[in-house]
Specification:
The complex is a heterodimer.
Chain A: H1 2-10, E1 18-22, E2 34-40, E3 43-50, H2 58-61, H3 70-75, H4 82-97, H5 103-131, H6 135-156, E4 165-166, E5 169-170, H7 178-200, H8 204-210, H9 218-223, H10 228-233, H11 240-243, H12 264-288, H13 306-311, H14 313-325, E6 332-340, E7 343-351, E8 359-363, H15 365-370, H16 373-377, H17 382-392, H18 396-400
Chain B: H1 2-38, H2 57-69, H3 80-96, E1 107-108, E2 111-115, E3 121-125, E4 131-132, H4 143-164, H5 168-199, H6 204-210, E5 214-215, E6 219-220, H7 223-226, H8 228-241, H9 266-291, E7 300-301, E8 304-307, E9 310-312, H10 317-347, H11 355-384
Antiparallel strand pairs in B: 1-4, 2-3, 5-6, 7-8, 8-9
The chains are: A mainly alpha, B mainly alpha.
Chain lengths: 401, 385
């Protein structure tokens, strides 16, 4: 009997891993994603990611709308930088149509795209601070984003769902006082960036939280298909704007900031540097831009002028054909890719020669990054999910489509 | 009977007027208006009282009413009894500790004399003169120990709240809070040991009296002067004890929802929150009495102003005694408010630590430092004293 009493003491305490459902409605998993975590204490030994809670059926919806009607749907992909989605889609359809747009259109697309990228990066870096509890830095960043959105609102007429792109052109030219407002915004953006940098970049707590967490190696990043700031943070110098220039990116001078370690801190720094680069690109665009038409003069895609519509039968027929049947895109397929806020945003488009797309597949960077996020999370602590998930910058609308 | 009435009055004034007043006003002014100032916002101003927003003060009343009227939810399969008493267990220690906090020296029924040649000790002289304890609820000769013992109890509340809620996030929060509070109590106590060795007393009022000593007739012998390292260690450990940012990981809202208060609603939630503010104020008071001279107003003594050996008595002895009383109470309140303000500034500037980093800081940095501080203090005391 005596031995029996002591036996339980000799054994190890029986422990088993705890399974924790994190999300889809959890403060950290914004944009609704679900992590099924297997925990050993606070350490994550296994993470299963489940996406799709924000699925809207983008790819099916667009099959029932004309080529032009797709624009509002693309706004809702990456809702933090909708202009980049707009322009990416315009570019893809234009490649299929094999039409060229006037230089001014390309300049404006470059410029507005970079403004949109600013909004994306400011939101992401600000949210990184917010999720660590540094609310003030977040609100400073949001002030910057508001200024950027004010510019977007002035040009496009909307703040979030802009629908500014058009096939073969744009909705509108820049407004009169745009340059003046940009000068003010630029000044504030530099101040805000400086302020956020002072609060975070050399803050010991911030460094401890960000350095060495969520580490991504170049091999892993490439094999999982990571692109954008996440890939560049590992040291791989791949930027669609630089390597496969489109719009006017080959005529402006900018650097591609790269990291070296691929951890959260490098991703944060890459984004902070890209803010500066975007501002540089915008300045050059405004400098080199020349007045001129913003829309292509191809009658297949452009609506005729109102004067022609009301006074000539050809104009009226053309107007109705484009509105009712949509732009007639020749049969074929194209894969066109641009650099969006989070990485390579690709549109794979199949046309059967009618006014509606046969199939549009979106290669959304967020979805692809979600495929490998468990590698960044596993082995860390619960608290590490927060900065990792933030700097990867998964946007629900884009990921779940 | 009079004694009982006085005690009740003291409890009412200190606990309900000062602590609750400051704690809840701080939730308002500190947490909302101050943060709004930091973040370029306006802050709350929509709740109005007869058309006046009064710096957002009506929000406090509106919040109170809202909290009371909210539905009280106890999760299924939660331990109802423990779930219900946990907020009280968190809240009460934050208030009980105040019983030993002196807001002013004892009241002297005779005349007070300061003896500059005897370390500026104040004595109460005159026929039938004695010290009357009117300015702290309880005069206890081991007040510091009592305050620590009470502060340590609040860890049970958080741990029980975490366990009784039947939620994994709560459980994690409860575990984190108990680990954090226990770890930091060690370095908190050890950093204080050096101070206790110098003062040689556990009585808080005695400690403050000793801090009235002027070194070289001009430098007040406050705790921060004689134990600067211990001051920072204690402040840091104290911050961690209050579970507020940057040490707010037991309720790190982005990782474990709200930690051990995830499953609380209505007034129970409000109590958990208020307890945190009360703890903030309590830690501020503890730092103030041990390191910042408590109610001591530099160079102001009950019988006049003394500096560089000089002695002035403005407005005559009798009037000056009353002036000094108000000055000293004001000094104590000001020090507490200043430290509370400091904590809020940190809360709105710094990001949150990670669990293992908090443990590293506590055990590998603060603890060795406080032991070294203790050792050096002991060595100096043996050699010099």
């Amino acid at each position: 009997m005596a031995e029996d009493i002591y036996e339980p003491i000799d054994q190890d305490v029986h422990t088993e891993p705890m399974i924790l459902q994190m999300g889809p409605s959890h403060p950290a998993t914004h944009g609704t994603v679900r992590f099924t975590l297997t925990l050993e204490g606070e350490k994550i030994i296994k993470c299963e990611t489940e996406v799709g809670y924000l699925h809207r059926g983008f790819e099916k919806e667009v099959e029932n709308s004309t080529w032009t009607q797709v624009f509002p749907y693309t706004d809702r992909l990456n809702y933090v930088s909708p202009l980049l989605n707009n322009f990416g889609y315009s570019l893809a359809v234009e490649r299929l149509l094999e039409i060229d747009v006037p230089p001014r259109c390309n300049w404006i697309r470059t410029l507005m795209g970079e403004i949109s990228r600013l909004s994306d990066h400011l939101t992401c870096t600000g949210a990184a601070a917010l999720e660590l509890g540094a609310m003030s830095a977040f609100l400073y960043a949001i002030e910057g984003r508001e200024l950027v959105w004010d510019l977007i609102e002035e040009v496009t007429g909307a703040r979030l769902t802009v629908s500014y792109g058009r096939i073969g052109g744009l909705k509108d030219d820049l407004t009169e006082g745009f340059e003046e407002r940009w000068k003010y915004t630029k000044k504030r953006l530099f101040e805000i960036r400086e302020e956020i940098g002072q609060l975070l970049t050399r803050n010991r707590i911030f460094l401890d939280r960000f350095q060495g967490t969520g580490v991504l190696t170049p091999d892993m990043a490439l094999s999982y298909g990571y692109t954008g700031p996440c890939l560049r943070s590992t040291g791989v110098d791949y930027d669609v704007r630089k390597d496969h220039p489109y719009f006017m990116y080959d005529e402006v001078d900018f650097d591609v900031p790269v990291g070296s370690k691929g951890d959260n801190y490098d991703r944060y720094l890459v984004r902070m540097d890209e803010i500066v680069q975007s501002i540089r690109i915008i300045d050059q665009c405004l400098e080199k831009m020349e007045p001129g038409p913003i829309n292509s003069d191809d009658p297949r895609v452009m609506l005729p002028e109102k004067e022609k519509v009301y006074n000539t039968i050809e104009g009226m027929i053309s107007h109705f054909k484009i509105i009712f049947e949509g732009i007639q895109v020749p049969p074929g397929e194209v894969y066109s890719y641009t650099e969006a806020g989070n990485g390579e945003l690709g549109y794979y488009i199949v046309s059967n020669g009618t006014g509606k797309p046969w199939k549009i597949h979106v290669r959304s960077p967020s979805l692809i990054m979600m495929g490998g996020i468990h590698k960044l999370i596993e082995g860390g602590l619960i608290a590490d999910i927060i900065p990792t998930f933030d700097t990867v910058n998964m946007i629900g609308g884009e990921c779940d489509k | 009977m009079v004694e009982v009435l006085i005690s009740l009055l003291k409890i009412t004034v200190i606990v309900f007027v000062f602590v609750m007043g400051v704690a809840s006003a701080m939730t308002l002014l500190g947490d909302r208006k101050q943060s709004a100032k930091i973040q370029n916002r306006v802050g709350p101003n929509q709740a109005k009282f007869f058309g006046f927003s009064l710096f957002g003060f009506p929000h406090f009343i509106a919040d109170g009413i809202k909290m009371v009227l909210k539905e009280n939810i106890v999760p299924a399969n939660a331990n109802k009894f423990l779930h219900t008493i946990a907020p009280a267990l968190v809240f009460m220690p934050a208030l009980i500790g105040w019983s030993v906090m002196p807001f002013m020296d004892h009241f002297c029924t005779g005349t007070v004399q300061t003896l500059p040649d005897q370390n500026y000790t104040e004595i109460c002289t005159g026929p039938g003169a004695e010290w009357k304890n009117y300015f702290s609820i309880m005069h206890m000769n081991s007040g510091v120990l009592f305050a620590f013992a009470i502060a340590a109890i609040s860890v049970y509340g958080a741990a029980i709240a975490g366990w009784a809620s039947n939620s994994k996030f709560s459980l994690l929060g409860g575990l984190r809070s108990s680990a954090q509070m226990i770890s930091y109590e060690v370095s908190m106590g050890l950093s204080l040991a050096g101070v206790l060795m110098i003062y040689g007393t556990l009585n808080i009022n005695e400690m403050i009296r000793m801090q009235g000593n002027l070194l070289g007739d001009w430098l007040p012998m406050w705790g921060i002067v004689i134990q600067p390292v211990a001051f920072f260690l204690f402040l840091l450990a104290g911050l961690a004890e209050t579970k507020r940012a940057p040490f707010d990981l037991p309720e790190g809202e982005s990782e474990i929802v709200a930690g051990y208060i995830t499953e609380y609603s209505s007034m129970k939630f409000a109590m958990m929150q208020l307890a945190e503010y009360a703890a903030t104020v309590f830690i501020a008071a503890l730092v103030a009495v041990v390191f910042l001279g408590g109610w001591q107003f530099p160079y102001v003594y009950a019988d006049g102003i003394r500096i560089f050996g000089g002695h002035w008595v403005p407005f005559g002895e009798e009037v000056w005694y009353w002036i000094s009383i108000f000055l000293r109470i004001g000094a104590m309140v000001f020090k507490i408010l200043f430290l509370v303000w400091l904590q809020f500034m940190m809360r709105w500037t710094l990001p949150r630590f990670r669990y293992d980093q908090v443990m590293t800081l506590g055990w590998k940095i603060l603890l060795p430092l406080s032991i070294a501080n203790l050792f050096v203090t002991a060595l100096v005391l043996v050699i010099i004293w």
